Q: What sequence folds into this?
C-alpha cells in the first residue's frame, strides 16, 4: 500500500496564502463592479471593503509567518 504524500507546515502556509490572495482579488473585483453600477448598495459595499481589509490582515500575518524577520 502506498501512503499519500504529506505537506509540511510551510507548504500548507503557502497554499493558504494563495487562497487568501485569490479571495482578496475576487473581492476587489466585486467591489469594483458594484462601485461602477448605478444602483450600488452602500451597506454591501462597506461590508465587502471591511471583509477585504480583514483578508489583507490575514495575508500579512501569513506572510510574516512564512518569512519571519531576521535581525542581523
A:
Amino acid at each position: 500500500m502506498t501512503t499519500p504524500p504529506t505537506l509540511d507546515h510551510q507548504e500548507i502556509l503557502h497554499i493558504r496564502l494563495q487562497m487568501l490572495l485569490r479571495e482578496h482579488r475576487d473581492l476587489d473585483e466585486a467591489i469594483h463592479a458594484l462601485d461602477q453600477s448605478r444602483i450600488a448598495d452602500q451597506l454591501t459595499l462597506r461590508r465587502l471593503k471591511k471583509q477585504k481589509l480583514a483578508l489583507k490582515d490575514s495575508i500579512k500575518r501569513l506572510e510574516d509567518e512564512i518569512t519571519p524577520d531576521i535581525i542581523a
Remarks:
- The chain is about 75% helix and 0% strand.
- The chain has one domain: 10-64.
